[in-house]
Fold this sequence. Notes:
Strand order of the largest sheet of chain A: 2-1-3-4
Shape of chain A: globular
CATH architecture of the domain at 85-198 in chain A: Up-down Bundle
Largest interface: A-B, 25 and 25 residues
Radius of gyration of chain A: 17 Å
Structural class of chain A: alpha+beta
Oligomer: homodimer
Number of strands of chain A: 4
Number of helices of chain A: 8
Largest sheet of chain A: 4 strands, mixed
Order of helices and strands of chain A: EHEHEEHHHHHH
Helix content of chain A: 40-55%
Amino acid sequence: MRKLYHHWLSPFSRKVRILLKEKGLDFQLEVEKTWERREDFLALNPAGLVPVLVEHDGHVLAESQAICEYLDEVYPNKLLIGFDPATRAETRRLVSWWDLKFGREVSEPLVFEKVMRRFLGQGHPESAVIRIAHQNMKVHFDYIAWLTERRTWLAGDDFSLADIAAAAHISCLDYLGDILWEDHPATHDWYARVKSRPSMRPLLADHIPGLPPPRHYADLDF
Amino acid sequence: MRKLYHHWLSPFSRKVRILLKEKGLDFQLEVEKTWERREDFLALNPAGLVPVLVEHDGHVLAESQAICEYLDEVYPNKLLIGFDPATRAETRRLVSWWDLKFGREVSEPLVFEKVMRRFLGQGHPESAVIRIAHQNMKVHFDYIAWLTERRTWLAGDDFSLADIAAAAHISCLDYLGDILWEDHPATHDWYARVKSRPSMRPLLADHIPGLPPPRHYADLDF
């Protein structure tokens, strides 16, 4: 069985989980506490990060974007990066936007301050960091509004890895109850469309021990 | 004429410069002072970052990895991401290693502390940050040694975008005189092979006004 090493609140792991489901590929989840720096895991990925995907035949893949590109090449039943080079470039530009820019400015600081600090015994959340991340979030949600005024999905006419990457990050923050949906109607409408896809169901059923999600997290009518 | 908006010490811009030369594609360089947040540039890339590539026909591409993937798809005369999915996944894993991990841990802090602080009027370099980046650099150079003991080039038998990304970051640090080459013989030998490629010549001729490189920077026998 294909195995995905992940964390519950790693947007990069969630990106691969959604992509695998969109393609109808079976896999088993394995939680990896990367901060324990387990030797067997470092042998799979010397960067020490999730996600890591181990294919049926033992082939090991690391780094979320390398995994997604691989899956789109090897299982082309449903292409999620795009069909022509221009659309593929736009999809990849937006995937980088979420994974790098939104990650640094919003999702990484929020997940770290609100969850990881406690796990790692690094004191209380820093409210200034949380406040800045929330301010940044508004700018990114305005960008989703701008894009969806012009396009059906974030990168163009088709649902793509750009939507998957954005939903992966945003679903982590929604799990933490950090999004005031009424302030962001366009992002809400786009996310409602993503959330209703069968590929999102397993994520919406996530329930981290000791850290339950708010009630609206799994609700399609939120 | 194809135009690349860049900074001299942006590893991401250098990655695209080397790739374009490897493929024999002509282009014109245009320095973009991204910190000025010029409106016409933000219209090209709302993330406000270099590199941005404007193709002959006006098609705009942003985010270095999206640009490189596009060029490898549209100009396949010399494939630099690899031929089969497994090699392509390994190339992309290593590109992420350099662009994300090495970037965060080594090249971004060093370029910021040693160059950008002055340009931006943000005071003196923080020596603790520089010391930690130098310690991190050793770990990454040991990884190059480990890889090149087992492979001809970083991702396998062929020169690839993994070598280009690594050389892009390392050439920035070498421009700053931050690498003690005698401490890293395996990385030295690999970099000497990269440096001797014609695609590296334009970078080795770089000369930033007010910030000349050390003499060995352009020397193939360093």
